Request: fold
Amino acid sequence: MEYDTDFWNKYTDENESNYNQEYSKFIHNLATSLKSNSILEVGCNSGNDLKEFPENFEVHGIDLNEHALDIARKKLPSFKFKNGSISNIPFEDSSIDFIFTHYLLNYIPEQEMEKAIKELFRVSRKYILTCELFDENESAVEANTKGWKRNVYQRWLNYQVKIISHVDMHEDIEPNKPRFTLVRKT
Reply:
């Protein structure tokens, strides 16, 4: 996968002012209700979605952007952040209770999607949440962007998982109303 450092550094700097506390609370409350002790955000950027977790959780984040990870480490020093890719998640098999993505799969090239889903499945011990812009047939987000609306639900049908939820997020939690797909590994 070709990585555009300048694009993602700019995204990180803009993302710092776009903290969505409702989404961060939602992720914390969901992980708590699922009795998850270890959390991993794949594509964590500067850690905004992890801010509501208290220090007694085992929280991890991976991202390819070192600039974003430096910010995350300063903001959330009790959490563990490392450089890593969704196509090669640097964790052991079945090692994390709750793994999630937030708009990450929208930027993964089609030829790498299967590997990305396999890696999420491999590392998960229990739950995987994907929160991505959705289209039943998968289409470009906009004509001149690198992003794709994804149908992650369809991709999970080839795995040993139970689909727990597959709905649009409420706009009070996430204004863009991405599709929330939660699965439990069986």
About this structure: Residues 5-185 form a domain with the Rossmann fold fold (CATH 3.40.50.150). The CA atoms of residues 25 and 52 lie 6 Å apart. The mean pLDDT is 93. The first strand starts at residue 38 and ends at 42.
